[in-house]
Amino acid sequence: MKYKYEPNVYIVDYEKLKNMFAFDNNGEFETDDPKLIEWIRKNKPFLKPIDEPVEPQETEQKKYKCKYCNYETENKGELLAHYREHKAQKR
What we know:
Layout: E1 2-4, E2 10-13, E3 18-22, E4 28-30, H1 34-43, E5 64-65, E6 72-73, H2 76-90
Antiparallel strand pairs: 1-4, 2-3, 5-6
């Protein structure tokens, strides 16, 4: 796996007080050691491998529903404006 970070930075295991590896002058580090890769995933989550594509997180749009009718929207401001219309109709 290949990692990219700031150039000439040492990554330290603070439990063992040991330098685990260092990035080169280009800010790259490459390893095939499965134990080291697993250690990086567990202890240094800010280091992301270059080879793995970062998947965008899909967030579901929250649906806001009117209490008085079947109106539905994804924007809370629109729902509040809709409630004002209901209140105006009741007067």
